[in-house]
Amino acid sequence: MEEHHSNDEFDAPWKDILESYFPEFLEFFLQEAFDGIDWERGFEFLDKELSRITRAASIGDRRMDKLVKVWRRDGVELWVLIHIEIQGDRKTNFAEGMYVYQYRAYDLYQVPVVGLAILADEEDSWRPSEFSYTLWGTRQSYQFTAIKLLDYSEYALEQSTNPFAIVTLAHRQAKKTKHRTEDRYQEKRRLIRRLYQQGYSRQHVIDLFRFIDWVLHLPEELDDRLNEEIVVFEESQKMPYISSMERFLEKRGVKKGEAMILTRQLQRRFGTVPDWANEKIAKADLPSLEEWSLRFVDASSLDDVFSDKG
């Protein structure tokens, strides 16, 4: 029987790929913003500020929000608020949540906030992009950009070299092949082979492979079959990326088990594990997980476990 990821489990790969390739993310989904940003000044993910806004907003679970500080070409600092909506269910308060986050961010920090929602669901008619109300001569309206992954044509995605074209293809195929294991196998095989033909760097190939492998999850026997095919294909192409990919696949099961054990240990001693700690665990490599598990024995706080001082 095929195993399936819940909608929530798409969060981690999306967050990882967004954080790794944020300029490419904006170039693909919001070209106007990409063109208006001074990338030489860098950018910064504002996790602490977003956490403060989230607590103040009380609008529900928004795990996929990202708040990023950038600089416009004219020197003005502004923030980009991004929400990726993975679930296929219509959310009645979605636009309200975007509005609340925007005004809370402006109220707390007095900076312009650009709203961008990536709708990765399968409900074509659900397209929230505005929150408004009118009462006794007063009108309040907030519009934000909403990008629907369903709107991208297969042809355009196949032609693009932006890594988020592959991300979009992989996500859509994950939805489309949810109950069709053999079709999913063929699509995963096709997308991985395509990585080698797009001229991506070695790191791009490995990062995108990790995303594809996560969202297009297959039973172990099919993954083994696919890996054998990829080894043969890669050898014929003289592209030795597969060694890193194989190590990743081999360690995936060990790493997942180590992460689960560490999380349970932390919960037992410190109670609810905060989002920042869960995120560190989700992104960590195996040596880090093993090190944190050792530190746990003598740690008196979560900070002791994750301290960079070791």
Note the topology.
Elements: H1 11-20, H2 22-29, H3 31-36, E1 44-45, H4 47-57, E2 65-71, E3 77-85, H5 94-109, E4 113-119, E5 130-135, E6 138-143, E7 145-148, H6 154-159, H7 163-176, H8 181-197, H9 202-215, H10 220-237, H11 242-270, H12 275-283, H13 286-296, H14 302-306
Parallel strand pairs: 3-4, 4-7
Antiparallel strand pairs: 1-2, 2-3, 5-6
Helix pairs in contact: 4-5, 7-8, 7-9, 8-9, 8-10, 11-13
Report on this structure.
This protein has 310 residues and is α/β, with parallel strands linked by helices. The protein has 3 domains: 7-124 and 141-151, no CATH class; 154-240, no CATH class; 264-306, no CATH class. It is 56% helix and 13% strand. The chain has helices at 11-20, 22-29, 31-36, 47-57, 94-109, 154-159, 163-176, 181-197, 202-215, 220-237, 242-270, 275-283, 286-296, 302-306, and strands at 44-45, 65-71, 77-85, 113-119, 130-135, 138-143, 145-148. The strands form 2 sheets. The chain has a 5-stranded mixed beta sheet. Strands 5-6 form a two-stranded antiparallel sheet. Strand 2 (65-71) and strand 3 form a beta hairpin. The longest helix is centred in the C-terminal third of the chain and has 29 residues, at 242-270. 25% of the residues are buried.
